[in-house]
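hey so i finally got around to running both of the ones u sent me last week. sorry it took forever, my laptop kept dying halfway thru and i had to restart like 3 times lol. anyway pasting them below in the order u listed, first the sequence line then the structure token line for each. didnt double check formatting much so if smth looks off just lmk and ill redo it

first one:
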Amino acid sequence: MPDPEPDADPNASDAPVFRKRTVSFVRRSGRMSEAQERAWSELAAHYALPVPRDGATTSVRAGSEIDPAGVFGREAPLIVEIGSGQGHAIVHAASARPDADFIAVEVFKAGLARTMLDADRVGARNLRVVEANAPEVLEHLLPEASVDELWVFFPDPWHKKKHTKRRLVAPPFPALAARALRDGGVLRLATDWEDYALQMRDVMADAADFEPAFEGEWAPRFDGRVVTAFERKGTAKGRDIRDLVYRRKDRS
């Protein structure tokens, strides 16, 4: 049975009642602050990528590929973060690496508003945000072999057993990641939930398009990941932070 649509557009008369695939989020409405509303009115024209929808407010219509070089006005390495939250990690990275371009993917509009505000404050003009369901971004919005690095840091662990089917890094995920990543591109994962880390490692071990880019059980902590509230919270609760990193094999 498909999951009930978590974010149907109430203004779309033909909005589907059910999604075909389980999603890794439940989107709840919430009021944004004045600053966040201002971010959308004043900054979205530069930072927010317009996304053609397919019924749901976070869906991506098939055939909606962007042209990264056209979006950013140059050819440069492209780094995409899935589940960017408040944007702390990707804004820090974008400001530290003006030679690369960055896309933040998130379903929560308030988090993207905060991302735009912080990016504007530090002058990170090499960043764009996308309000959309990540698997649909990987499948429909990003061109094949266009991404140099794909980051998934501290995704929702859905730690209750009845909810683990919602986890993003599950068997369907590697194929979508492999489509978007260029040959030799890097997938970086991090979580503070041990059972999710084990699931991530098992899923990627079965992914024919990837090979580990680390030795031993876990990868070293990624130096390019700034410590965020999620990481501090996990550490404060006594949970170990586990990193994994994989390289996209060459297409045959």
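and the second one:
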Amino acid sequence: MRIGVAGPVGTGKSSILATLCRELAGELAMGVVTNDIYTDEDARFLRSAGVLPTERIRAVETGACPHTAIRDDISANLDAVEDLEEEFGPLDLVLVESGGDNLTATFSPALADAQLFCIDVAGGGDVARKGGPGITGADLLIVNKTDLAPHVEVDVDAMVADARAARDGLPVLALSKHDPASTAELADWVRSVLARHRAGALVPTDPGPMAPHSHSHDS
């Protein structure tokens, strides 16, 4: 199963991957693919954290908009996933991290069986209300870095309530890597999705591209 992890720059995507590897690598055969525009910084972070054997963490340098590499031309990411599967398979789970993008970033369902979208309290308490296909349609929305809320004057409960209102019943998780209960809940969500995948009951869904829009050209 492949899980895509997307979200704006600095929301903690790499930290979430590290958390999932720590929680699950003892029971699942895993690999990771990271995306950056010009560097392999995220892959190096994960390798230095020691969360997986270094050879199971692959980096894709997109050279252009990260959104393009996870949605429009996914060939580089598919190649990286297939290389991991060929070398270390059978794998239970491959995590694919998007490069930092904006609120419109979503994975092609041909690349990700399930999608996780990450926002964080330091980005502002109103982020969830701004919407976008990742916020409204991803399989799981994470409100990350909840431990920082007192320092940035954000009401986590209100932010989570806004997120739930935007998602029409889809799950929302308030997460801090320093809170064992929330990291355990994240790992349990992955286990439940993997169980559905193994049972043939998981159908990849597409949160959708950016909504059609127009700009006035009136002078």
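quick thing i noticed on the 2nd:
The mean pLDDT is 92.
anyway thats it, ttyl
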